[in-house]
Amino acid sequence: MKEIISTDKAPKAIGPYSQGIKAKGFVFTSGQLPIDRETGEFVSGGIKEQTRMSLSNVQAILKEAGLTMDNVVKVTVFLSDMNNFQEMNQVYAEFFTEGNYPSRSAVEVARLPKDALVEIETISVE
Question: How many domains does the chain have?
Fold first, then answer.
């Protein structure tokens, strides 16, 4: 069985997918774009602001599932430009407890939805 995770504290899905899914002790978040849920638009600024917004959206979905960022075991970061890696990484580190970092992949992609600079998805355990 699976349970759909949905919260109004993160942007609504912009397609036929769920914000998150809970199944067999795991929580999977869909890729989160840097969309401000209140405006429905990208947060203003560059990669740091977009990374912070994407991770805040992940955090809101996890909270709805009763979890925190400490429950995250795997992160995939999609970047539109690998030259943004260092700045993304600085903000990313603010969201995870040192010594409890999840595994992670960071990849450059040709293009992200709505021309975002970053999109972030996670896998967590209860």
Answer: 1
